[in-house]
Design a protein that fits this description.
Layout: E1 8-9, E2 20-25, H1 33-46, E3 50-54, H2 57-63, E4 68-70, H3 98-111, E5 115-120, H4 122-144, H5 151-155, E6 160-165, H6 181-202, E7 205-210, H7 217-226, E8 230-232, H8 242-255, E9 261-266, H9 279-290, E10 294-298, H10 310-329, E11 337-342, E12 345-350, H11 351-366, H12 370-377, H13 379-392, E13 406-412, H14 419-432, E14 436-440, H15 443-448, E15 452-454, E16 473-474, H16 482-491, E17 496-501, H17 503-515, E18 526-530, H18 546-562, E19 570-576, H19 583-592, E20 596-598, H20 606-622, E21 626-632, H21 641-651, E22 657-662, H22 674-698, E23 699-700, E24 705-706, E25 714-720, E26 723-728, E27 736-737, E28 742-743, H23 752-758, E29 765-766
Helix pairs in contact: 1-10, 2-3, 3-4, 4-11, 6-7, 7-13, 7-22, 8-9, 10-19, 11-12, 12-13, 14-22, 18-19, 20-21
């Protein structure tokens, strides 16, 4: 008899019956908080718990009464796409006092609440932990004052706390990303992209001030994403004499023909002596020293506002579900934990370990130990800073190493947003390491036609924000033209290849490694950086371009649903791209709040379609007004988008009507998202550093040439769980379904039950990655230098 799968836990085994869970948002608001609230409420109700909103944060807990309200499934409908926090947030001085916490404890006991999900920053979470530690003493006081019965002390003996970090500053140690950070970066980059057009028209310098009183993450990552000329952050103040160096840099940039300069200043920026550096000071300096027409833009609370990005919706939804699971599994001895993101995994960390590490950063900055502060922020922050310096500040020719190696960069496959950022990064890192860089136009088709040119540092200026492929890209594979390509490699003395592309790029490397037996020209280091909206490349959990496509899908779905606002009940059938890979449909469905998503990887039949229609019909009768169904373009050759539309239209008669939309190539277009710009920049920089290492290792002094013919000299650099890993492409063949052009195993399939749960379907949820309380790591393994979370 088959053994049960212990990794997949059905919710009968994780019952929340009899438990009361309250959710509150505290401190500053952040986009995505509503998605977290929605996930907590729906997951809590799903497992049979009572769930309560606490309005206005800790103030509402202290005041009690109508501020503590029981939540229903319908009460969180249409909340996913709303920015801020609909249950309110307030800073509460009263909760900082013992008397305030006593009132709060009384109000919770009145409702039988002993489980708290707190969404906020380190101050809010520290307050929650103190409340938890005082809980039993507070109950004893309440008994002594005659406010609760004596048996309540035993009945409500322990308060369980799970935190989720909602902060646009990304200033909390232990997590790669906090809820709201990605959306804030979207707001900043939208403004920067708009400003760059007007700055270019008038040859202006713009100084942008972004939020970050104690943390420079937003300033640093937005500088990396837009290719800013200079950035000022509190963790790493500039060296004395920075004023002259900055002006020299701006002047040198203009002398190379650039018509604008961008300087980004964090609001908490300081110099080495602790003196604030404001945007006004920077502007006056540029005008005085260079005479450039200079303007200041202070973004302010624009960064907190607007619709949450796809990343924040998914992050918050995953964290909300994980928080409820943590509360279901907690015991009286379990320490308060915070749900964090490591790579692409949700993990639980002891709350106070994270808080103490966060406070250590501030102590290091106060003590002017800035190098230590950067390290304490984590490897992702450290790597962002290192990469920015490498790409923004060009060394003088005299200081560059001389390698005498020629490296070619090309795009292969369909265009994907972020490809240009990856090419820019490869070119500039290559030049910094002494290589001569060559650009190949139109992929391998251009390669065999000889469309190869040397590309310089200034040639890739301004590329990070450009969509599509500026080099040009084709799906042509090299096998048919291998002789001509070998000839071009020989004529241009190409010593290494860096390919940015999708599944075709992977197939190309397999063909080139096969051709090594006949052509020595291909016995050189070759590396691939995955870039495709479909996210179907084996060996990598994420590809450049997929995040931009997800945001396009999410934004469009929001607008489509809004189009039915105030009309009769309506269901929208949306077709997404992806070939046979269901990533965009599944993860886009989670971000947009879809009721179903049909994909090739999860076979379905007419009974499943009928069950979905009946499920939606039932929901339409009782609560929701709009339904959303996503369909991957190749999920089933018979159950086409038209078929599903007609089925829903017929079966929904009298309850709802249906509409269909095919999103098409809009998913490939547009400016790259901040995530794709930074992921492309950092993964490509790492790939180029690997190329340099391999060139040094495989250069034969006696023959005066590079010769690399081992498996590990032809690799794909991919994100695997929490680390960036170089994998020989030959070894990835067994992991690949070549017929359908997808990996045989795909991590995101674990997210599908989450979408179904939040859409009120009964299902099972794989919790094999959950339940482990980990610890904060000061220095992570070196492979994870480039975090998935930018």
């Amino acid at each position: 008899m088959a053994q049960p799968d212990t990794k997949k836990v059905f919710f009968e085994n994780l019952s929340g019956t009899g438990k009361a869970i309250a959710v509150l948002t505290s401190g500053g608001d952040a986009q995505g908080m509503n998605a977290a609230v929605r996930a907590v409420v729906r997951m809590g109700l799903y497992v049979g718990a009572k769930v309560y909103f606490i309005h206005e944060g800790y103030q509402g807990m202290v005041d009690g009464g109508e501020n503590i309200e029981e939540a229903s499934w319908e009460s969180v409908s249409s909340m996913l796409q709303v920015g801020g926090t609909v249950i309110g947030s307030a800073r509460c001085k009263e909760f900082r006092s013992h008397e305030g916490r006593l009132k709060a404890a009384h109000n919770l006991v009145l409702q039988g609440i002993t489980n708290l999900c707190v969404i906020g920053g380190d101050g809010s979470l520290t307050g929650a932990n103190l409340f938890r530690e005082e809980w039993s003493g507070l109950l004893t006081e309440l008994v002594d004052q005659g406010l609760i019965e004596a048996d309540a002390v035993q009945k409500y003996s322990a308060l369980h706390i799970v935190g989720m970090v909602g902060s646009i500053d990304n200033d909390f140690c232990g997590t790669d990303m906090t809820i709201g950070t990605d959306s804030a970066l979207h707001r900043i980059i939208e403004v920067v992209d708009a400003i760059m057009t007007t700055a270019q028209s008038h040859q202006r310098t713009f100084v942008l001030e972004v939020m970050g009183r104690h943390c420079g993450y937003l300033a640093l990552v937005s500088a990396l994403a837009c290719g800013a000329d200079w950035v000022l952050i509190p963790e790493m103040p500039p060296e004395d004499g920075w004023e002259d160096k900055m002006c020299q840099k701006l002047s040198a940039t203009r002398s190379r023909g650039t018509r604008l300069n961008i300087i980004i200043v964090a609001e908490g920026a300081i110099d080495r002596h602790g003196t604030p550096i404001t945007s006004g000071i920077v502007k006056d300096l540029v005008v005085k020293c260079l005479g450039f027409d200079t303007r200041v833009t202070i973004l302010g609370h624009v960064q907190r506002g607007g619709t949450p990005s796809a990343f924040d919706r998914i992050l918050a939804s995953r964290m909300g579900v994980e928080a409820v699971l943590a509360l279901l599994e907690t015991t009286d001895n379990t320490p308060a934990c915070v749900v964090s993101l490591r790579g692409n995994q949700s993990v639980r960390l002891p709350l106070m370990e994270c808080v103490q590490m966060t406070q250590e950063v501030q102590r290091a900055m106060d003590g002017k130990r800035f190098e230590e502060a950067v390290k304490l922020r984590g490897r992702s922050f450290e790597n962002n800073l290192r990469t920015y310096k490498l790409l923004a500040h060009r060394k003088p020719e005299s200081e560059l190493p001389v390698s005498n190696f020629n490296v070619a960069v090309l795009n292969v496959g369909a265009p994907a947003a972020g490809m240009n950022a990856a090419v820019r990064s490869a070119v500039r890192v290559g030049i910094s390491e002494g290589h001569k860089m060559f650009a190949v136009s139109d992929g391998f088709e251009g390669f065999y036609k000889g469309q190869i040119r040397e590309i310089k540092w200034a040639d890739v200026g301004g590329w990070t924000g450009q969509g599509g492929s500026l080099l040009g890209t084709k799906r042509t594979l090299p096998a048919k033209h291998v002789e001509k390509i070998a000839e071009q490699m020989r004529m241009n003395n190409i010593n290494a290849l860096l390919i940015v592309g999708g599944f075709e790029a992977f197939l190309s490397l397999l063909e080139l490694i096969t051709a090594r037996g006949k052509y020595d020209e291909f016995c050189v280091p070759m590396v691939m950086v995955p870039a495709t909206v479909s996210n179907n490349v084996p060996g990598s959990d994420l590809s450049i371009g997929a995040d931009t496509a997800l945001n396009a899908i999410t934004t469009t779905c929001d607008r489509i649903k809004q189009s039915a606002s105030g009309t009769k009940r309506r269901v929208f059938i949306i077709e997404t791209m992806g070939g046979y890979c269901g990533y965009l449909a599944s993860v886009g469905g989670l971000a947009a709040g879809a009721d179903a998503a049909y994909i090739y990887e999860e076979p379905f039949d007419i009974k499943d379609l009928q069950a979905n229609v009946e499920h939606l019909t039932e929901k339409m009768k009782t609560s929701i007004q709009r339904g959303l169904v996503l369909r991957n373009e190749n999920c089933n050759e018979n159950y086409t988008t038209d078929f599903i539309y007609q089925l829903y239209s017929e079966e929904g008669k009298g309850v709802f009507d249906s509409r269909k939309n095919v999103l098409g190539h809009m998913q490939q277009g547009g400016a790259p998202s901040p995530f794709d710009r930074n992921f492309g920049t950092k993964i490509s920089a790492k790939a180029m550093q690997w190329v340099t290492k391999k060139l040094t290792e495989t250069f034969r002094q006696d023959e005066g040439r590079v010769f690399a013919n081992t498996e590990d000299s032809c690799c794909l650099l991919g994100m695997r769980r929490r680390a960036l890993v170089f994998q020989p492409v030959v070894q990835l063949k067994d992991e690949t379904d070549f017929v359908h052009r997808i990996p045989k195993e795909q991590w995101w399939l674990k997210l599908r039950p989450l979408m179904k749960i939040l859409a009120k379907y009964k299902t099972s949820y794989d919790v094999s990655d959950s339940g482990q309380l980990e610890h904060v790591i000061r220095n992570r393994p070196k492979e994870s230098d480039t975090s998935v979370a930018m």
